[in-house]
Amino acid sequence: MDKILVLDSGRVLEYDAPYLLLNNEKGHFKRLVSQLGDKIANSLYQMAKNAYEKIENTNL
């Protein structure tokens, strides 16, 4: 996916590319992913980074 929408009780908390959300240290999405454990969180971060860079390079 190219965007993530984080909701709480129907209220939008965050909406952006997964990679950008994972770089927000105080973000809700970052906190949710970190609860999965370091190994999975790091793997998801790397996948999000690769996808983001691929999209950015395509837009150049």
Describe this structure in a few short sentences:
This is Putative multidrug resistance-associated protein lethal(2)03659-like protein. With 60 residues, this protein is of the alpha+beta class.
Account of the 3D structure:
This is Putative multidrug resistance-associated protein lethal(2)03659-like protein. This protein has 60 residues and is α+β, with helices and mostly antiparallel strands. It has one domain. It has three helices and two strands, in the order E-E-H-H-H. The chain has a two-stranded antiparallel ribbon with strand order 1-2.
Write the layout of secondary structure elements.
Elements: E1 4-8, E2 11-16, H1 18-22, H2 28-34, H3 38-58
Antiparallel strand pairs: 1-2
Organism: Dinothrombium tinctorium
Protein name: Putative multidrug resistance-associated protein lethal(2)03659-like protein
* Relative strand content: 15-25%
Give, in spatial order, the strands making up the sheet with the most strands. 1-2
Taking the sheet with the most strands, its summary is:
2 strands, antiparallel
Rounded to the nearest angstrom, the distance between the terminal CA atoms is 20 Å
What is the average per-residue confidence, as pLDDT, rounded to a whole number? 94
Helix content: 55-70%
**Number of domains as seen in the coordinates:** 1
Ranges where pLDDT stays below 50 over 5 or more residues in a row are none
H/E element string?
A: EEHHH
The whole-angstrom Rg is 12 Å
> Which secondary-structure class do the elements indicate?
alpha+beta
Gross morphology: flat
- Total of DSSP H or I helical runs spanning 4+ residues: 3
Number of strands: 2
